[in-house]
UniProtKB/TrEMBL annotation, chain A:
Signal peptide: none
The EC number(s) this enzyme carries: 1.2.7.4
SUPFAM superfamilies in the record: CO dehydrogenase flavoprotein C-terminal domain-like (SSF55447), FAD-binding/transporter-associated domain-like (SSF56176)
Lipid biosynthesis recorded as keyword: no
Name of the protein described by the UniProt record: Carbon-monoxide dehydrogenase medium subunit
Positions of transmembrane segments: none
Organism: Mycoplana azooxidifex
SMART domains membership: CO_deh_flav_C (SM01092)
EC category name: oxidoreductase
Automatic annotation (TrEMBL), chain B:
Lineage of the organism: Bacteria, Pseudomonadati, Pseudomonadota, Alphaproteobacteria, Hyphomicrobiales
Cofactor(s) listed in the protein's UniProt record: Mo-molybdopterin cytosine dinucleotide; Cu(+)
Known role: Catalyzes the oxidation of carbon monoxide to carbon dioxide.
Keywords: Copper, Metal-binding, Molybdenum, Oxidoreductase
Keyword Aminoacyl-tRNA synthetase: no
Quaternary structure annotation from Swiss-Prot or TrEMBL: Dimer of heterotrimers. Each heterotrimer consists of a large, a medium and a small subunit.
Protein name: Carbon monoxide dehydrogenase large chain
Domain Aldehyde oxidase/xanthine dehydrogenase a/b hammerhead, first and last residues per copy: 35-144
PANTHER family: ALDEHYDE OXIDASE 1-RELATED, XANTHINE DEHYDROGENASE
Keyword Metal-binding carried by entry: yes
EC number of this enzyme: 1.2.5.3
InterPro entries: Ald_Oxase/Xan_DH_a/b, Ald_Oxase/Xan_DH_a/b_sf, Ald_Oxase/xanthine_DH-like, AldOxase/xan_DH_MoCoBD1, AldOxase/xan_DH_MoCoBD2, AldOxase/xan_DH_Mopterin-bd_sf, CO_Mo_DH_lsu
Superkingdom of the organism of origin: Bacteria
Length: 288, 809
């Protein structure tokens, strides 16, 4: 619980942060809210020699609409996500999910960018971003590029971030009006990672499912976008048979670790239960 | 207003002003704790203080081939690196445990559990110390390990304790195997076997009280400061029993006891974890003696959970014999006790399984037999009493689960079965089959009150409906009703039953009244959050008629406090609380003589009235305790020694036996295994109630820990002996969000042998709570034929029960 020695840097521009990252190489890590990285450092599972705190850089936080996207700055805290009227109106699932992250003290510090960029399979935002088909703005010394959340995660703590790149913003296509949504998370206690969780976005026409997108949290080394499960539901009336096949399809792509939250078979089944419950709740909320 | 009303009002006002026994006095210590102004060991900063940290074993069982400290010693800021080779010439590479075993301070030839202490690095700051631990190069040769205690005594089991392998008689008699620690038997075996052979109904179940950890919020820590000129050692530490620590340090270090000053400052929770001695204490002392500067050692959370004393790991094969009508005829228990690598069980009784022989519970069971086998495994050592008296949670768990198993076999309501077998009020003092004399109890009344308050009959009716609805597929929820009726045994204890390394288990109080009538009182106990500064003052307030706010309570400094055995096993109120009352009564007796002198009457003409002595029949002629105090110093009666103070060392004549009736209503989601406690009702009888608010707080805390233990808290090991989940990320420490709402209630059956009739309460809720939760879970699944469901009852395990029973689609 005693971290190794590190140098602390606090650049004021994204350019200088990127320059520092490139100069210091693999021994440097960007620091956002610190709620994933610092616990790793305390247990010495991570021992970066340099921390580049992004808190001093202007313009990295905020929530705004830009044409058909919602743009959220990387340093926007979970507390701000919860308080945003724009998100409550356009994408309330972000608020619902944020409220299930840890506790208020942590949400004052934890950021969407850190949560998405760290590649920790236990984080809640990555699967949600896959569900919402978000794009991540990655800034390096050759400018900025966009990567789909669905393409970003390569393994546990392994992402598409190239050396010297910083995730600076998240762009989320504005969800359709009247959509239904739900984030269902099974956890042992406040502050624990999910045993399993499911994010569902759905649109309905009458009692027919027109579109559905499903993200699964903490049931594999990466967040999972359950594409096949979603496909099985489109055009159905979400009858028991279709839901059962979708749940089976979602369970089939999971590959959870056995840990104190439960053995792998339990966590797979819980992904299914969470999906089933999220689908029910999302459908009840869809108004179209 | 008539004269009598005036007198009554005046007396009520004077009583209220005292804030004595029975009133909900606010905790005085909370003024500093709620402001962050407590003073803990880690707050201590001394000039020149340096810091220690441990190199720990990654293996559960391995031979140490070599230890090379040269790279660590070469690191700037590193002052010293201690290994067993440094401690051995001092005879300190092993230390005695409270259970008569020895425990390695730093591993010499072998490591016996993961994270065992191998070397102690001392550096100028905490960070350098931690960095340098990574530079100590230890070469290990891994050995096969034992994690399952049932495999410890197999003929081909690897021998764990080579240091004692030829010593086949341990502290508690002969050892049957090199990995065997002791066997303890009590009760009439033949008579018990006979009852079982002829009984109409018997049940037998292996009940596991799994391995968990007391996990106080403040970890274990110490600061040792040796003054080479004076030859004196001051040791601050997280000690539940500071005086015992001083005596032990004196015995093992050779320093005379008066040159050792042990100070336990504010302590952030103990729950049994801070009774024993740890390698860190010894290494900080040795470090300071060698270096001549203060050495601080502060454990981190993972070290606390994975190396300091665990609790339980009791595998209890429990049998009951009964008639078809449900009259219990006999009990037979065999325990396999996993003590880990060393028997560091913090058990001050004379027996290696503490008070496990309270396992006949609240029932009139004519014959019983108990046998306990202790074994070594490659796990952290301990076996402490986690918020309970020694092995009492285990004992109560065994009997309260077994009663449920029997009720099911008899197809009888388990509340009715309990009622049928309770010891009756007129049977007290009651001699139990396993040797205890229960002081007082009124079980039927308590149980009936509890059942009436929660509406037991209606709840069973609701449950019957829900079970039908579940069978029809209308709900996916199972309703469980958990009952536990516990009898504790606390207040260690009479010298015939208890000692620590030969030190009898008395406790003490020293009360000194100042000339102006304010008081300082010092005790041999040590609060870790129990509220002693509040409650002892209330006892004195009532006994001596001095407002509690004018009484300061001090504990924890061995130079100033009278010798005592510390705080654990709910012993503070039963033992030091009694000492406090007795010391106060000595003072009162002297005060009466002084008052008689002041009022120029005979002592026998005086009567006590709340805060004063008054002349019988002349209530306007009186002297208050405050006035008497002034006279005691300045104008005592002729030939009387001035001053007003007293000391009492109290050896209790018997243990006290608090009891209670607990009910838990639980709803379980079969699809996730998530259990929600809908209602929890706790009726406690702790005898005389000193401060109802503190009792309620103790009950809330104890129930919360019981909830944690039953519903998911565990220290688990994989088959390689790797400790799993030794951080608060994984270890289940419930927050306010998960914790159920508690309903508390009480009856009052005073202890007949205690000066104020108090019995102790801090641990009852834990002892009674654990089986109550487990019974609720077991009850929920019982109608589906689930059989015994072992703790901990976390969601995945309950889901597995559903899988086994085919409850999932």
């Amino acid at each position: 619980m005693i971290p190794g020695t590190f140098a602390y840097h606090r650049p004021t521009t994204i350019g200088s942060a990127v320059a520092l990252l490139i100069e210091l190489g693999e021994d440097a890590r960007p620091l956002a809210g610190g709620h994933s990285l610092i616990p790793l450092m305390k247990t010495r599972l991570a021992s970066p020699e340099h921390l580049i705190d992004l808190a001093g850089i202007d313009g990295l936080s905020g929530i705004a609409r830009s044409d058909d996207d919602i743009v959220i700055g990387a340093m926007t805290t979970q507390h701000s996500l919860i308080g945003s009227s724009l998100l409550s109106e356009l994408a309330p699932i972000i608020r619902e999910t944020s409220l299930m992250i840890a506790d208020p003290q942590i949400r004052y510090k934890g950021t969407i960018g850190g949560n998405c960029a760290n590649g920790d399979p236990g984080n809640d935002m990555p699967a949600l971003m896959q569900c919402l088909n978000a794009r991540y703005a990655l800034t390096g010394n050759e400018g900025s590029r966009e990567v789909l959340a669905r393409d970003f995660y390569l393994g546990a703590y392994e992402t598409a971030l190239a050396a010297g790149e910083i995730l600076t913003a998240v762009r989320i296509p504005v969800p359709a009006a009247g959509h239904g949504y739900a984030y269902e998370k099974l956890k042992r206690k406040v502050g624990d990672y999910a045993t399993a969780a499911a994010a569902v976005m759905i649109t309905m026409a009458g009692d027919t499912c027109m579109s559905v997108s499903i993200g699964l949290t903490n049931v594999a080394e990466t967040p999972l976008w359950a594409e096949e499960a979603g496909r099985l539901l489109v055009g159905t009336k979400l009858d028991e048979g279709s839901v059962a096949s979708a749940v089976a399809a979602a369970e089939a792509i999971t590959d959870p670790a056995s840990d104190m939250r439960g053995p792998a078979d339990y966590r797979t089944k819980m992904a299914g239960v969470m999906l089933r419950r999220a689908l029910e709740r999302a459908r009840s909320r869809a108004t179209a | 207003m008539n004269e009598q009303v005036k007198i009554d009002l005046d007396r009520a006002e004077r009583t209220e002003k005292l804030q004595g026994m029975g009133c909900k006095r606010k905790r005085v210590e909370d003024i500093r704790f709620t402001q962050g102004k407590g003073s803990y060991v880690d707050d201590l900063k001394l000039p020149g203080m340096v810091f220690g940290d441990f190199v720990r074993s990654p293996h559960a069982h391995a031979r140490i081939v070599s230890i090379d400290t040269s790279r660590a010693k070469a690191m700037p800021g590193v002052i010293a690196v201690l290994t067993a080779a440094d401690l051995k010439p001092l005879g300190l590479h092993y230390m005695p445990t409270l259970a008569g075993d020895v425990q390695a301070v730093l591993a010499e030839e072998k490591v016996l559990f993961q994270n065992q202490e191998v070397a102690f690095v001392i550096a100028e700051d905490r960070y350098i110390a931690s960095d340098a631990t990574e530079l100590v190069d230890v070469e290990y040769e891994a050995l096969p390990c034992i994690v399952d205690p049932f495999k410890s005594m197999l003929p081909d089991a690897p021998i764990l304790r080579e240091d004692i392998k030829d010593k086949m008689t341990g502290a508690h008699g002969p050892r049957k195997h090199p990995n065997h620690i002791f066997e303890w038997q009590i009760g009439d075996k033949q008579a018990t076997d006979d009852v079982f052979a002829n009984a109409e109904v018997t049940i037998k179940e292996m009940l596991l009280d799994h391995r968990t950890h007391p996990s106080p919020l403040e970890t274990c820590q110490s600061v040792a400061s040796f003054d080479k000129v004076k030859g004196e050692l001051t040791l601050w530490g997280t000690f539940q029993a500071p005086h015992v620590i001083r005596t032990v340090v004196s015995l093992i270090s050779g320093l005379p006891e008066h040159k050792i000053h042990v100070i336990a400052p504010d302590i952030g929770g103990g729950f049994g974890n801070k009774v024993g001695a740890y390698a860190g204490y010894v290494c900080s002392v040795v470090g300071s003696i060698v270096l001549g500067v203060p050495v601080k050692w502060v454990e981190d959370r993972m070290e606390n959970l994975s190396t300091t004393s665990f609790a339980r790991d009791y595998h209890m094969t429990t049998e009951l014999a009964a008639t078809k009508e449900g009259k219990i005829l006999g009990m037979r228990v065999h325990v396999l006790a996993d003590h880990g690598a060393f028997d560091a069980c913090a058990d001050p009784s004379k027996w290696p399984a503490g008070f496990m022989n309270i396992c006949t519970g609240s029932y009139d069971i004519p014959v019983a037999h108990l046998a306990v086998d202790g074994v070594y495994t490659n796990k952290a050592s301990g076996g402490v009493a986690y918020r309970c008296s020694f092995r009492v949670t285990e004992a109560v768990f065994a009997i309260e689960r077994a009663i449920e198993v029997l009720a099911q076999k008899l197809s009888m309501d388990s509340a009715e079965l309990r009622m049928k077998n309770f010891i009756k009020a007129e049977q007290f003092p009651y001699q139990s089959a396993l040797g205890w004399e229960y002081d007082s109890g009124n079980y039927h009344v308590a149980m009936q009150k509890a059942m009436d308050t929660i509406g037991y009959k209606q709840l069973r009716a609701e449950q019957a409906e829900k079970r039908e609805a579940f069978k029809r597929g209308e709900t996916r929820e199972l309703m469980g009703i958990g009952i536990s009726f516990f009898t504790e045994i606390v207040g260690a204890g009479p010298a015939k039953n208890c000692d620590i390394l030969g030190i009898a288990m008395f406790d003490s109080a020293e009360i000194r009244i100042h000339p102006t009538g304010s008081v300082i009182a010092r005790m041999g106990t040590k609060s870790q959050g129990q509220g002693h500064e509040t409650t002892y003052a209330q006892i004195i307030a009532t006994e001596l008629g001095i407002p509690a706010d004018d009484i300061m309570i001090e504990e924890g400094n061995t130079d100033t406090a009278p010798y005592g055995l510390g705080t654990y096993g709910s012993r503070s109120t039963p033992v030091a609380g009694a000492a406090t009352a007795v010391a106060a009564r000595k003072i009162k007796a002297k005060a009466q003589m002084i008052a008689a002198h002041m009022l120029e009457v005979h002592e026998g003409d005086l009567e006590w009235d709340i805060d004063r002595f008054r002349v019988k029949g002349l209530p306007e002629k009186f002297k208050t305790m405050k006035e008497i105090a002034w006279s005691a110093y300045n104008a005592p009666p002729p030939n009387m020694e001035p001053g007003l103070e007293a000391v009492n060392y109290y050896e209790p004549p018997n243990m006290t036996y608090p009891f209670g009736a607990y009910f838990c209503i639980m709803d379980i989601d079969v699809d996730t295994g998530v259990a929600k406690t809908r209602r929890f009702y706790a009726l406690d009888d702790c005898g005389t109630r000193i401060n109802p608010m503190i009792i309620e707080g103790q009950v809330h805390g104890g129930l919360t820990e019981a909830f944690a233990c039953a519903m998911g808290q565990e220290i688990r090991y994989d088959e390689m002996g790797n400790v799993m989940g030794a951080s608060f990320m994984d270890f289940f420490l419930p927050t306010a969000v998960e914790t159920p709402k508690w309903e508390t209630d009480f009856t009052v059956t005073p202890s007949p042998h205690h000066p104020i009739g108090a019995k102790g309460v801090g641990e009852s809720p834990h002892v009674g709570g654990v089986p109550c939760f487990s019974n609720a879970v077991n009850d929920a699944y019982a109608f589906l034929g689930a059989g015994n469901i072992q703790m901990p009852h976390d969601a995945w395990r309950l889901w597995k029960v559903g899988e086994r029973l085919g409850l999932h689609a």
